[in-house]
Specification:
The chain is of the alpha+beta class. It folds into 3 domains: 109 residues, Arc Repressor Mutant, subunit A (Orthogonal Bundle), CATH 1.10.10; 107 residues, no CATH class; 119 residues, Methylamine Dehydrogenase, Chain H. Helix content is 34%, strand content 21%. It is built from 11 helices and 15 strands. The strands form 4 sheets. It has a 4-stranded antiparallel beta sheet with strand order 4-5-6-7, with no helix packed on it. A 4-stranded antiparallel beta sheet has the order 8-9-10-11, with no helix packed on it. It has a 4-stranded antiparallel beta sheet with strand order 12-13-14-15, with no helix packed on it. Helix 8 runs antiparallel to helix 9.
Length: 358
């Protein structure tokens, strides 16, 4: 029944469950693991992964059932907080790095109806730094969504989004990013956060020197190793696809700022890029004289269209997704069928040759 304290979508780490059971039932870890194995053998829960990565979850119907029976879920979340509190000798910032605590503490506080504590936690520099070190910047940014109407937290969340590409590479840049982007006298809470950050860096800017909050920039996406040559958005606005001189395409989740796939296959710079209207496929043109058709769901190149004698400089896809039209420095205009691999044909010309001039 106590497993109702964990989220349906992702469950919990095995260590989190054992921590709770030791607190509520005086079960030592060895006995707790035996209990998990016994419940799994009766198909009452799932155990996935190995070692520190092992996760415990209920089937959706079972989770709904135990949630309906447990009644006071806020009380269950309090028990989780109490259990972990015993492992935090210097407050939450000293909690265990068990692949659960730092990721889910703010959620348990919110579910335990401790919104004021969530507010204080997400404005405490030591917690922000500890969570960055234990997890990643996107996990930290997501915590601010638990209190969507808190304007101060929204301000700090915007700061973290703008700094995400820096903090991903070096979490120790956090104090500089706070001091460089957060103006003084914005609120008592933000001034307190600035004061805490001042104690964690030997370099103290006299005033904010980075791109300030309120600018149109939301976040910077970083991953290509050479200049970006083209960007296209899927029709639902959830993803961006970029091409680069590094010979790759990347698919980006715009909500998290993460690169979800890297598409590799070209041997030269990718100069031209187009997406089908349904967002399922991308076509890229490269200086290696080829076009490639990509399945964005799998990240695989499903067709290579050849026949050019120079690099591809321009590219468009017809609205029905059946044809790609490419422009090249070889003076030929070619229409390539992407739905059917067929011999490329020239507009109004035989397939035998190209005109002498563009």
């Amino acid at each position: 029944m106590e497993l109702a304290a964990f989220a349906k979508s992702e469950g919990a780490s095995e260590q989190a469950v054992l921590t709770l059971w030791k607190h509520t039932g005086q079960l030592e870890e060895r006995d707790g693991r035996k209990m998990l194995i016994a419940l799994k053998s009766k198909a009452l829960l799932r155990l996935d992964g190995d070692g520190q990565q092992r996760r415990v979850s209920l089937h959706d119907l079972q989770h709904d059932y135990v949630c309906a029976l447990c009644g006071n879920r806020a009380g269950l979340h309090l028990k989780v907080l109490e259990a972990y509190g015993k492992k935090c000798p210097r407050g939450w910032v000293s909690g265990p790095k068990d692949d659960y605590f730092f990721r889910r503490l703010a959620w348990h506080l919110r579910e335990a109806e401790k919104s004021d504590e969530v507010h204080r936690l997400l404005l405490t520099f030591d917690w922000l730094q500890a969570k960055l070190d234990a997890t990643d910047v996107n996990a930290l940014i997501a915590d601010y969504d638990y209190l969507p109407n808190d304007s101060v937290l929204r301000t700090v969340q915007s700061l973290l989004r703008q700094s995400a590409h820096i903090l991903t590479g070096n979490s120790r840049e956090l104090p500089v990013q706070i001091l460089g982007r957060l103006p003084e006298n914005l609120s008592q809470d933000t001034d307190a956060l600035r004061a805490q950050a001042l104690g964690h860096t030997p370099l103290r800017p006299l005033k904010p020197t980075l791109l300030l909050l309120g600018a149109s920039l939301i976040r910077t996406l970083k991953g290509h190793t050479r200049p970006v040559t083209a960007v296209e958005l899927t029709s639902d606005g959830r993803y961006a696809v970029s091409s680069s001189d590094d010979g790759t395409l990347r698919v980006w989740d715009l909500a998290s700022g993460q690169s979800t796939k890297t598409l590799q296959g070209h041997t030269g710079s990718i100069v031209a890029l187009a997406l089908t209207s349904d967002g399922r496929y991308a076509v890229s043109g490269s200086t290696d004289h080829t076009l490639r058709v990509w399945d964005l769901a799998t990240g695989q190149s499903i067709k290579t269209l050849e026949g050019r004698t120079s690099g591809i400089h321009a590219l468009r896809i017809t609205p029905d997704g059946r044809y790609a039209v490419a422009g090249s420095g070889d003076g030929c205009r070619r229409r390539s069928g992407s739905a059917l691999i067929r011999r490329r044909e020239h507009f109004g010309l035989s397939a035998a040759g190209c005109p002498d001039s563009p």
